[in-house]
Amino acid sequence: MNGLTLRFMIAERRRSLLGWTTGTVVLVLLMAAVYPSIRDTGDELDAYLESFPEGFMEAFGLAGASISSPEGYLTSQLYSNVYPIVLLIMGIGAAAWTIAGAERDGTLEATLAAPVRRRSVALERFLGVAVLTLIVTIISTLALAAISPALGLTTDLPWWGIWAAGLTMWAMVMLYTGVAFAVGAATGRSGWAIAAASVAAVIGFLGQVLAALADPLEWMRVVSPWYWFLEPNPLVNAPTWLSLAMPLGITAVLVGVGVWAFDRRDLAV
Amino acid sequence: MDSTGIDRAVAIDHLTKRYGDLTAVDDVNIAVAPGEVYGLLGPNGSGKSTTIRVLLGYLAPTAGTVAVLGDDARLPSTRARIGYLPGDLRLPMRLTGQRILGFTVATLRAAGRDVPDTEVSDLAARLELDLTRRFTTLSKGNRQKIGILRALLGSPDVLVLDEPTSGLDPLVQDLVLDLVRARAEAGAAVLFSSHILSEVESIADRVGVLNRGRLVTEGSVAELVASAPQQLVITLTTPVTTESLLSVPGVDSIQIEDRDVHLAVTGSAAEVFTRLAPYGIERVKSAGNELDEVFHRSVTPAWQEGAP
User: Fold this and answer.
1) A82-96 vs A118-151: helix axis angle to the nearest 10?
2) Which domain holds residue B247?
3) Do B90 and A113 touch (CB under 8 A)?
4) Domain end point (choices B225, B250, B278)
5) With an 8 Å Cβ cutoff, is A253 touching chain B?
6) What are the pLDDT tens digits along chain A (269 aa)?
7) Which residue among A107, A116, A118 places its CB closest to the CB of B91?
8) CB pairs under 8 A between A and B
9) Which residues of B touch A2 (CB under 8 A)?
10) What's the pTM?
11) B4 in a domain, yes or no?
């Protein structure tokens, strides 16, 4: 591994990176810009939300904080849904393309014809996906961190809260990205890769929501990466092993399986 | 034998590749020596590309072995000595030729190959290729030139070219064949697949014909050409009868149209000329390509099999 394949892969996705970064930054800024109006109607909104069952509030990240507080607003409106979902769409798409998609469209041959080991190609191309997703996360978090003081979104939050949430969100996204990579690398089919990762992400999300709503489903939280990410309340607490090490560890295993399978199978280039 | 003592730069031994019930390559043996150009012929679906893809390690053989320069082509140290042009070249559309080839140069250097700084620009100038343009904006011929340039980088010891002149104009075809010939003269082994028989005849030392996965004919171009009937049209000043040529050895078929005698002759045609000399030979024309004849004799289309 010398990083050449990683740099080449990132060059291939340069335009896509620009698009996703711009889109995610715009989304995050728009969501942040709405906060002052939510804060100003805080008491009425809180009174309305209190009529919902506790489990419902918990399912949508409002268990311990008011929606009018920065912590409650960011958790319920950004980190519980749209922000990670956008990153998941980007990460899963890129991971499905990086081996399986590029193999089907023939462009993977450009890398495989070079004197590089096949397993290095797979590993570096996954690292490329991880770097691309991290870049989008960092830049969008930077935009959020930059605009937050002006909108009152930093009140009562530690300065590193947004960064810790961004990091653990990225770790969760990596896990599902790892699923897409493993399936794509093992089968050469990008459709299967996207389907497997999307289904896993939806099940994980539903597991987190349903477990909050029904006690008999409590066990579903234990296996939900969404719960691992949200439960420690990353905006105010430092990342835990469950929110950071666990998803990244599983990602490492998934990537290992994908690389192993890719190294052994017939390729369609 | 090359400087490293390898006498078979490309060694394919009893190679079989099956996909379920379909046998794509069936017990194929091919060897290419350093400095030799081996032309691999065959109709579509005959197993040429599959053979090449197994050789390069993209596919695992079902049975048999393959080796390039005595080793596994997947090893970076071996791969750095192989220049490869796939039959259906697809490169990242949004990258420029410079970026694509820059990656190849960097990986070759990382694998220990010496690639002079000017090699890319020199080859690009010879091929009249603009490397600043994105791959997507290039014509089919110019895309093919990028693939050829990439295959030639780092002075490879083995060139594997799957239909290299596809999409190129005749002038560039000649230039590409010159570049390939030059690599072979410098000691590289060349495995060259093509549909263009005259091209193979002009460049290959040996030829193998694949048909439905089997190597059905193999030999030096000279041998194969000699074994094929020559198609001659001899124009005489005085008409001749068929009977006067029937007993000439090597004459496979005779057809007479006025003063033109159409002959298929295997081996030497000297006796034919001796017999016809008294009738006054006005003009002799070779009417066919011998390698073409060898190819057509070797390859029976599936739809003709079993036909009466």
Assistant:
1) 160
2) 229-296
3) no
4) B225
5) no
6) 789 999 999 999 999 999 999 999 999 999 999 999 988 887 777 777 777 777 777 767 676 678 888 999 999 899 999 999 999 999 999 999 999 999 999 999 889 999 999 999 999 999 999 999 999 999 999 999 999 999 999 888 999 999 999 999 999 999 999 999 999 999 999 999 999 999 999 999 999 888 888 888 888 888 999 999 998 889 999 999 999 999 999 999 999 999 999 999 999 87
7) A107
8) 70
9) 110
10) 0.87
11) no
The reported pLDDT for the residue numbered B308 is: 45
Sign of the CA dihedral with B184 first, then B186, B189, and B192 last: negative
Asked if B107 lies within 8 A of A116 by C-beta distance, the reply is yes
**B172 lies in the same domain as B91:** yes
Instruction: Kindly write down the DSSP assignment for every residue of B149-191, as one continuous string.
Output: HHHHTT--SEEEEESTTTT--HHHHHHHHHHHHHHHHTT-EEE
pLDDT for B82-125, tens place per residue?
999 998 899 999 999 999 999 999 999 999 999 999 999 999 99
B143: contact with A, CB 8 A cutoff: no
CB B114 within 8 A of CB B153: no
Query: Within this chain, do residues B200 and B54 fall inside the same structural domain, yes or no?
Result: yes
Alpha carbons B17 and B23: distance in angstroms, whole number: 6
- B175 and B234 in a single domain? The answer is no
Confirm whether B2 is domain-assigned.
no
Three-state DSSP state, A35: helix
The answer to whether B273 faces chain A, any CB pair under 8 Å, is no
Question: How many degrees, rounded to 5, is the angle at CA B75 between CA B70 and CA B80?
Answer: 85
Comparing alpha-carbon positions, the chain B residue that sits nearest to A3 is: B107
Q: A-contacting residues of B 40-69, CB under 8 Å?
A: 53, 57-60
Report yes or no: A1 at the B interface, CB cutoff 8 Å. Answer: no
Residue A23 Cα, gap to closest chain B Cα (Å): 21
